[in-house]
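DM from R.C. (forwarded with permission)

"hey, sorry to bug you on a friday — could you get me a structure for this? deadline for the figure draft is monday and I only need the backbone to look sensible"
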Amino acid sequence: MKSYKKELWFNTTKRREYINITREVEKCLKESGIQEGLLLCNAMHITSSIFINDNEPGLHQDFENFLEKLAPEKPYAQYAHNGYEDNADAHLKRTIMGREAVIAITDGQLDFGPWEQIFYGEYDGKRKKRVLVKIIGE
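My reply, with the result:
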């Protein structure tokens, strides 16, 4: 059994954005040399997420609209967490969208369904953030 670990770093320019990280994760898989196994990809910040879905701008806007209805950013005073920081909504959005994705590896490729891609979701951005990629297998 082999193991591989790499951290990916991102500088986000907006408070909330979605970054397609599929190519970076595929590069990690190639570097690992692992042909059969599992890949874990997880956000290393409590206000960001990793999820798998379609790379379609309208859908990304739908995510934004949906999350903003469930956990609106403002008014900041609506959240007990907001005092030192103003990011309670980001914590809630991350909980909804999830922390990680686990993907099967077969014949050195990520086992995706049609249209599936990996995204980093940022909900309290404008600073450097990281993602962990951990691969185990043979």
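R.C.: lifesaver. The CA atoms of residues 47 and 91 lie 5 Å apart.
me: no worries. DSSP finds three helices and eight strands in the chain.
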